[in-house]
Write a structure and sequence with these properties.
Layout lengths: L8 E5 L7 H11 L3 E6 L2 H14 L3 E4 L5 H13 L6 E4 L18 H22 L14 E7 L11 H21 L4 E8 L13 H11 L8 H12 L10 E4 L13
Parallel strand pairs: 1-2, 1-4, 2-3, 4-5, 5-6, 6-7
Helix pairs in contact: 1-7, 3-4, 4-5
The structure holds NADP nicotinamide-adenine-dinucleotide phosphate (NAP).
Length: about 270
């Protein structure tokens, strides 16, 4: 069977462990024949990500804290020096202070708000700016360009209890997707977001009562179950491969249908 990403090179930011959505995406990209480059945030995570990369058969592992412009420049320079031509970039990164994901939103501090938006939304702009020049130029084996994608959540447009400042960050992230798609479209670079249903990951566990969100979601979602990270990953394959060539500036929901629901009567 032909592989959907044969000959493609993908940079994936946000693999922390086997539960990370980015891990599922890396696995799916490699299954489809892509060469995958992973990043880690700081020395503390280096060994874990290197071990995961070895197990996945990822091509390379490089450092990148997305809040540091110098590290983004260094990443881009390193990839350029190796002659890497990127076809896909996955931004699967978010952070907010734990207290901002448990107390009322109105109590969010100025610093907590700025931090959540910097790491979880602005970083997509910085990543796109650093990596877009590494994508194929038109004429280089075809139309050139590539696919940039990020991960978002329903809390951007609806109030989800305890999601708080992260919902505001995701709203900013989704608007950034649209503006980036408009800017980069002339270079045939597509920018999209996948809005995933709730998945039990390290970051998600920072949200108060996250297990109740999972339980409730499985009862209410049209498919009557939670989201499998492998389903999110297959949509990422679609966006990164030529199958997604006409799609840009979109938010694609992979959430067992949760986003269509209004009010549901549950026991
Ligand atoms: P995860 O495994 O904890 O991944 C989050 C990643 O963000 C980690 O690799 C973390 O690195 C990285 N990160 C945080 N700050 C960073 C920084 N300054 N520089 C570089 N990397 C940084 O959790 P996840 O659930 O898979 O999250 C991935 C994305 O999916 C996030 O955008 C999240 O909002 C989104 N999402 C998740 C769900 C869900 O229910 N899980 C649903 C919809 C959308 P370290 O671990 O090294 O800090």
């Amino acid at each position: 069977m032909p592989q959907l990403m044969e000959g493609k090179v993908a940079l994936i930011l946000g693999v922390a462990n086997k539960w990370s959505i980015a891990y599922a995406i890396a696995k799916a990209f490699i299954r489809e024949g892509a060469q995958v480059i992973l990043t880690y945030q700081a020395d503390r995570q280096k060994q874990t990500v290197e071990e995961l990369a070895q197990e996945l058969k990822a091509h390379r592992v490089l450092p990148c804290d997305v809040t540091q412009d110098a590290q983004l420049d260094a990443l881009a320079n390193e990839l350029k020096a190796q002659g890497a031509v990127l076809n896909a970039v996955v931004h699967s990164i978010a952070f907010a202070n734990r207290e901002d994901l448990s107390r009322p939103f109105v109590e969010t501090s100025r610093a907590g708000f700025a931090l959540a938006l910097d790491v979880s939304a602005y970083s997509l702009v910085a990543v796109a700016r650093a990596t877009a020049p590494l994508m194929a130029q038109p004429g280089h084996n075809g139309p050139g360009g590539g696919s940039i994608m990020t991960l978002t959540y329903l809390g951007s447009t609806r109030v989800v209890e305890n999601y708080n400042v992260m919902g505001v960050a995701k709203a900013s992230l989704e608007a950034s997707v649209r503006y980036l798609a408009a800017d980069l479209g002339a270079s045939n670079i597509r920018v999209n977001a996948i809005s995933a249903g709730a998945v039990k990951t390290t970051s998600a566990r920072g949200i108060r009562d996250f297990s109740k969100m999972l339980e409730g979601g499985a009862k209410v979602a049209p498919l009557r179950r939670n989201t499998d990270p492998a389903e999110v990953a297959d949509t990422a394959v679609f966006l990164a491969s030529d199958l997604g060539r006409g799609v840009t500036g979109n938010i694609i929901y992979v959430d067992a249908g949760m986003q269509i629901m209004g009010f549901a009567l549950t026991e």
